[in-house]
Amino acid sequence: MRWHAILGAALLWAQEADLEALWQERDNPEKARAAIAILEKDLSQNPHQTEKVLRLSRLYYLVGESLPAKGPGSEEKLSYYDKAFQTCRSELAYQLGLSGSKVEDEAIVKAATKDHLPLLYWAAAGIARWGKYAPFAKKVAARSKIRLYWDRMMELDPTYFHGGAYRFFGGYYALVPPITGEQDVNKSREMFEKAVAMAPYYLETKVLYAEAYAAHSKVRDRDLFRKLLQEVLSADSGTDPDYAAENRLAQKKAKNLLSQENELFED
Questions:
Q1: Looking at the predicted structure, is the pLDDT value of residue 10 above 60?
Q2: Is the Cβ–Cβ distance between 120 and 82 less than 8 Å?
Q3: What is the pLDDT of residues 46-58, one digit of tens each?
Q4: Residue 250 backbone zone (phi > 0: left; psi -120 to 50: alpha; other: beta)
Q5: Which three-class secondary structure state does DSSP give residue 94?
Q6: What is the dihedral of CA 87, 90, 91, 92, to 10 degrees?
Q7: What is the enclosing helix (H) or strand (E) of 112?
Q8: Where are the alpha helices (DSSP H) in 46-73?
């Protein structure tokens, strides 16, 4: 029995080491999927490990980022964003004592406190990304739920995860369908400027700023578009394990957006 215990501990240590190595390279979709497989198995056996739940949600989100917005793979893209949302939503409900298949999002969000910011943020990030790429009717229908989560993030701490709520609302005010009456490019720029000022090292903010605001049909600021994306490409992605992989992914996005410049700004 003693040797079984030793072997089990050794296997667990090896799995954790593998997971950590994969996590550091999570901007690679294949590495992200491999890490997902490890975490899904682990959490199925030992649920409610908050840090691993958060990592799983973030990995779902990143795989979603790697898939095309249109054509083959687009439905899978939405599925991964939904998994990112549902994973943190379920854990958040559990920690708040609100577990149950019919628990309302409003009850979950209202009960969440600053102690629950990581779970709340990644649930919000997942549903927001889903909303960005969902078909128009579903996008509009989901608007109130998306706002519910992000309004609470703004209320609790808009600076969490490198200016996360500021970054979201920068994109939201630019990209929300005009039919809602909420599209406002001036508010969009204000929110993006706050996010950049708060965390200039987090490169995804400038990518979204360029894509959502600078290339917006009501703005069309080509100089700003180039400036932001060139800053991303010339930046050091850093070594911080919390965001270095996201910065490398942002640099890939920036390069792709620059290649589409003429298309985005054609008359």
A1: no
A2: no
A3: 999 999 999 999 9
A4: alpha
A5: helix
A6: 120
A7: none
A8: 50-66
